[in-house]
Amino acid sequence: MSLRRPLWVTAVIGLLMTLLAAPAARAAEDPPFRDPALPLGQRIDDLLGRLTLDEKISWLHQYQPAIPRLGIGLFKTGTEALHGVAWSTDIDHGGAVVTADGTVFPQAVGLASTWDTDLIERVGAAVGDEARGFNSRNPRVWGLNLWAPVVNLLRDPRWGRNEEGYSEDPTLTGAISTAYGSGIQGGDPDHLRAAPTLKHYLANNNEVRRDSTSSGLPPRVEQEYDQAAFRPAVEAGAATGVMASYNLVNGRPATVNPDLDDVVRSWTEKDLLNVTDAGAPNNLVGSQSYYPNLAEADAAALKAGIDSFTTDDTNAAPTTTAIKAALERGLITESDVDTAVRHILSIRFRLGEFDPDGGPYGKIGADVVDSPEHRLLARKTAAEAMVLLKNSNKALPLSPAARKVAVIGPLSQTLYTDWYSGGLPYRVTPLDGIRERLGAGAVTGTEGADRIALKDVATGRYITAGAGEAGAVLRESATTAGDTEKFDVFDWGQGVLTLRSVANGKYAGYNWSNFVNDQAQPNGWFVQQQFKLEKQADGAYLLRYAGYETAESWFGPNTYIKAGDDGTLVLTTADQASRFAKETVASGVEAAAAAARGADVAVVVVGSMPFINGREAHDRTDLNLAEGQEALVKAVRKANPHTVVVLENSYPTTIGWEQDNVPAILWTTHAGAETGHALADVLFGDVNPAGRLTQTWPRSAGDLPDILDYDIIKSGATYQYSKDRPLYPFGHGLSYTTFAYQGLKLNANSARPDGTVVATVKVTNTGPAAGDEVVQLYTHQRSSRVEQPVKRLRAFERVHLERGQTRTVTLSFKAADLAIWDVTRNRWVVEASGHDVMVGGSSDGVRRRTTLNVTGETIPPRDLTRLTRAVDFDDYSGVEMVDETKERGDAVGASSGDWIVFRDADLRKPARVTAGVSSVSGGSFELRLGSPTGKVVATVPVPATGDVHAWGTATAPVGPVAGVRDLYLVFTGDLRIRDFVLGG
């Protein structure tokens, strides 16, 4: 017996069954790789198995094409996101260029100067959100694989890209990069908000000949310093890959450095997507001449651990052609391609690309870009990053009741972006911020720039610019000087200046055809808005075009300017150049002094122009403040003793006169749209400055070793090994309040190598205002087989304290962090030794100290009867680190008179020395005892092998010797040695 249903009930039930069955039906139709419930490895296997070989090869290029048959869209590796999403331009449907400016945070060196990992993680999260927002607009322009952060150590402040890095210290760099990367990725265990890629592996800290110089890294420097900066973020899962650098490391291009697989991937169990730097694959066959053709070069990069080739812009053909040729020649196999594609897919899956709903971050849209919350975060970060370098007689904070403040200087009324900066959606300049704080009537402003006109002595005509927004071609035309003939001159040091047209406020520059006043700021790869005015003996001036890369690379001697037959400015040689009278319409120094005299306080904002004073491809040759800017500061200080200098730049600057003569100095990096608000917050005490320097500021560039000397131990570089007295030490920064330290205690007075050291110290705010202190813990090992750092940062914490408040700050580190790389046995070793444990507010501001005894081991004498790598020496003179083979291994390259030493060697009465050697023409080396000129116990002839990578064997008897001695290898001729052994 059955009951009949009403028709409408049957219909409803049928509809419900259809709806419920639809997802199951769709799931059955969808391939497994689109099922987020499956394990990641299974999803990757499924998709990898569906790709043809050609499709897999196509994905090895930066622009991974869409595969419509699988419903897969284009994926782009590489969106710059150093301190916000960069290069924020797009092409609309009509083909016009449009901007999509986002939040620009302080430059990376400024982010690190906060010493606030929680804040930097929030910044990273904001950048990750905005990357999603931009990606939702145009995934071809803005991908979700982000090339940030830069974790190269700021070993030498002359590095042109100093603004991009965090610190000269690996502990601080590791902590900040981990925080930034964690924020970018988000907190989901299985998905990525965006995928951070660490730049640039390894030892990349010079721009001069950056693709042909080799960074020489003895094993201790490589392990304890350069790798130590990259390891923390990778180990913490806060990075999804590394970018190989342009330079060579120990003679081998970083693009084919086997570390990419052997070392970096050993730090994590997660897949990493490793990429080349832009154009680097082509360098292997070009400037580096390391391989004869691209097929061999790309094959070597792939086998070394590169997964994605960033080269030839959007044109993948050279890469895919080279990879196919490598496959045909047997240089690689399809499994090598599969390995790289598997790494790529791991990241793409984690980004939610193949999830039906895009994953947990898939719904983030363009509304997050430049959101009110991000603006507030940018303001907070810019304020936290500022470092109070000097503050005599409580010159700061300024009284909010100040009747009149003069804001002076070339950076007081502008904000500059840098090469890796996004565009600014709005601008709050220093003058704007201070005026907003005090009211327009209380603030006067002048840039302190000379206003000039240039009149051709021969023709009597002035250089004339255009008055409209787009400017006009510069030519000699007018016989009197109106606004179109006047230019404001800004001095950036070493004779380089920029000319801003009074007629339209735009900078004059070259456009490969003409000189035009049409740029909002100096910009571009060649920075063609640079000039020099060269005074001649008769008082006239030559106007020289000084754009980057132009004099030798493009125009030879034709870098001077003359008027053509129609008056248009053209390039010529110095002897053919027009001679100009420089008429100063208004003196910037005089205007600045007048403004300062009429004010209660003068705030002078000086510093750098990021596109001019060093940047990618251009190192600095000095660290000085521009001559004209220093003259401006001196004039203002003379006019008004109540002078505050705001130094806005991206690197240490040798401001010795200012430190001696100006009451207060505040440093900020270029900090984005909120710079003026943040500056006013700090100047008037709404924010108590607590930024700390992340680099040593030397007294002059002359205190630094050669920029190409990467051995910080031997050269005595950075705060770790330098014995010099700096202008400002690492970790330096003042406050509007004071702090006292009491009761430093350790959890134990001794520690085993596997233990954890926990230090507690009471910190009290003893001053008149609430503020933050950055509590820094350093250690120094008292005894060691090797030279130890003067001190080294182990832990830190930024803490907030109200007036009179005391907090117990806990800082900890692993005893294993005290390990050194033992070159005698090629492993990490914690030595038995006492350690000074020091806490304070900077590296030279130690306030409390105690002793920790570590029960480690004593490194025994060297056993040279075991095969010893030549690069594992203890000291050296003249030699260089070179590549053993093109694939892997390090060796020592030597010339006549060079030497290496192996200390404390247990010689055990050896009868013979046998060495692995190579030499084009042959040579020899001697074994000497005690010194490079000590007793000779062996002379080893080295045969010619014909090629530096063709290795042979050299051997010779060893004279009578016994005991533990220092053994020197002293070289004659040009040769290489990879290893040696002393035997019977």
TrEMBL record:
Presence of the UniProt keyword Transferase in the record: no
Gene3D superfamilies associated with the record: 2.60.120.380, Galactose-binding domain-like, Glycoside hydrolase family 3 C-terminal domain, Glycoside hydrolase, family 3, N-terminal domain, Immunoglobulins
Pfam families: CBM_6, Fn3-like, Glyco_hydro_3, Glyco_hydro_3_C
All residue ranges annotated as the CBM6 domain in the record: 865-983
Keyword Hydrolase: yes
Record's signal peptide: 1-27
Listed GO MF terms: alpha-L-arabinofuranosidase activity; beta-glucosidase activity; carbohydrate binding; xylan 1,4-beta-xylosidase activity
PROSITE patterns for this protein: CBM6
Keywords, comma-separated and alphabetical: Hydrolase, Signal
A single BP term in Gene Ontology: xylan catabolic process
InterPro entries per UniProt: BXL, CBM6, Cellulose-bd_IV, Fn3-like, Galactose-bd-like_sf, GH, Glyco_hydro_3_C, Glyco_hydro_3_C_sf
Family listed: Belongs to the glycosyl hydrolase 3 family.
Function: Catalyzes the hydrolysis of a non-reducing terminal alpha-L-arabinopyranosidic linkage in ginsenoside Rb2 (alpha-L-arabinopyranosyl-(1->6)-alpha-D-glucopyranosyl) to release alpha-D-glucopyranosyl (Rd). It is not able to hydrolyze alpha-L-arabinofuranosyl-(1->6)-alpha-D-glucopyranosyl (Rc).
Protein name (Swiss-Prot/TrEMBL): Exo-alpha-(1->6)-L-arabinopyranosidase
